[in-house]
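Table 4 source record.
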Amino acid sequence: QQQLVELGYDPVGHSTTAEQAIVLAGELRPDLVLMDIKLAGAMDGIAAAHAIREQFALPVVFLTAFAENETLSQAKRSEPFGYVLKPFSERELHTVIQMALYRHSVETRLRDSEAQFRALFDTSLDGILLASPDGRVFSANRAACAILGRSEAELCLIGRAGIIAPEDARLAGHLEARRRAGSTS
């Protein structure tokens, strides 16, 4: 905690058990959680990190003395933003924290952007098909499905393995022309 203060951070809570760490993360909503793998109580830090990430979308960095392969493998499943072995230097801790905070801000912006895109895509009154450069449809919004009288799954089959219904020939021709022109939209 003293090292964090010296580095200019404001520690907002401390816990010796995973269960308490999860509660504190929910109540305090810190920018970052520093977690040891071995904690008092029935639950370990890996399980707590997973719960904190799932429930609160908070980044977790492990500070631990455990480096064996099995522990590392289990820790990876919780998608940590960093893993620092004890003992560590202030510089190492500061670097890992800064990288984790940066990565979290980038992921948050990306998640927000994807949610905005999905909302626009889903609610647009215009029919929108998303297709790969080779013309294969991989997503269709509700309006496109209604206009074309097909489910999204059916539209995603258009152009695959020659499965094109006669009424879909116009759409398939349009997608093929766009593909040849080099358009990806």
